[in-house]
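Technical annex B. To support the medicinal chemistry partners, we prepared a structural model of the target in complex with nicotinamide-adenine-dinucleotide, based solely on the information shown next.
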Amino acid sequence: MKLTGTNVLVTGGGRGIGRYLVEQLDEAGANVFVLEYDENLCEELNQLASARVRAVQCDVANADAVDIAIQTVTEAGFDIDVLINNAGIIHSEPLVNMLSRTERAHSRDNWRKVMATDLDSVFFVTSRVVDHMLAKRKKGVVISISSIAANGNAGQSAYSAAKAGVNALTHTWAKELGPLGLRFIAIAPGFIDTPSTRAALSETMLAKLQQQVPLRRLGAMQAVSQAVHYAIENDYLTGSILEVDGGLVL
Ligand SMILES: NC(=O)c1ccc[n+]([C@@H]2O[C@H](COP(=O)([O-])OP(=O)(O)OC[C@H]3O[C@@H](n4cnc5c(N)ncnc54)[C@H](O)[C@@H]3O)[C@@H](O)[C@H]2O)c1
């Protein structure tokens, strides 16, 4: 599928990797609709970005909110060719915090919140969008931003489980809907240099993490964007988990 003139729906496109993807897709001539939780970021996108970019406020972890937002998007005449499930929260917490004097076990609220944002959202949005694609007889593409944490990352029970779920859904839907011409790809970044990565980690921690990467550096958001464009354009690609991690999983 070509990028020019393609209608792409991006979740969590207000900042970070999602925002970068929106800008690069816009530059490549795609039309972009963003579902974003943060109202201020939606306003920013609607005011600053090009006429090809629109944003609507939506908590993609909330099934009813997703239904309303998808209806808004499609009623605006936006027939979705490509969905990018990008919205997510990165959360680290040990299964048992041995140093805590009060509640030592992993918070169940945090578990639910991460699963809702990082996994439920992918199911809620994709099921509605695929229904729309099939009704419009589109040979659509669904790209989900996973993580190498899907292989199991110490201290990230909920995040790792959610991203492993995203990979499983990618395989399942590729098999289920491939015969109808739809494609499903997951992109699994390693450590990416984003404003939130910089805000969350100290310089010392960042230097330590880079030593674990065979290429000895963080990935640029451009590397994720290039993988997204490749996934859209390569018509024989489906069911793949594309690792963009500088060799970290090796
Ligand atoms: N940054 C990394 O190094 C890295 C590595 C691997 C995978 N990822 C994945 O990439 C994706 C983007 O990560 P990022 O680092 O850009 O994060 P980020 O926090 O910078 O941006 C996430 C965006 O999603 C939005 N969002 C969050 N919850 C939402 C919800 N319920 N509904 C709608 N929008 C919501 C936020 O408002 C924000 O605009 C995530 O799925 C993350 O797991 C990131």
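Notes passed to the chemistry partners:
The domain at 7-194+220-244 is CATH 3.40.50.720 (Rossmann fold).
The beta strands are 7-11, 31-36, 53-57, 82-85, 141-145, 183-189, 241-244.
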